[in-house]
Amino acid sequence: MTTAPITREEIGARDRQLTRTTRRRNAFEYLAGGAAMLFFLVMAVWTFAKGGSAAQMLIAAGFAVLALGVAVAGWHLFRQSRRAAAGGGMAADAGYLEGRLARERDLLRSAWLWYVGPMVPGFALIYGGVFLSGGVAFATIAGGLTLAFLILVAVINRRAAACIDREIADLRHRRT
């Protein structure tokens, strides 16, 4: 079975779809990240003001560090999106589209490092403070569930990267 070569129209359609998908994802991430940062900062101030024990200060610091981690992840996404847009314009050929797909794949593949990683210290401080304040069971269970969720986020992003790998392979196969 032979596969028809990819047309300029199909390249343009794939490029527009990729642009829509990444813009939608980025808008959601910025909105969710901003809301999370606000929540974590309010929790940091409230916990600090409530204060008292060293464990409470550790929890307050954890919320502040978690807000910073979300900011780092959002900044990385913003920088990578700006870098991808800088190459921008209309998809002139399959090579351009392949480059965009490869950048998106690499971003998703490394999400554990730039997206999940910056949040881990904040969670560790929060659950460490809860543990020290006597909430051993809660810290253990909530920490385990948080870890499972963060691993799930990394796995989902790796799977999305694998889908993009297949799309790149199809694009290469159909080049004329």
From TrEMBL:
Keyword field: Membrane, Transmembrane, Transmembrane helix
Membrane-crossing residue ranges in chain numbering: 30-49, 55-78, 112-130, 136-156
Keyword hit for Transmembrane helix: yes
Protein's recorded name: Uncharacterized protein
UniProt organism field: Paenirhodobacter populi
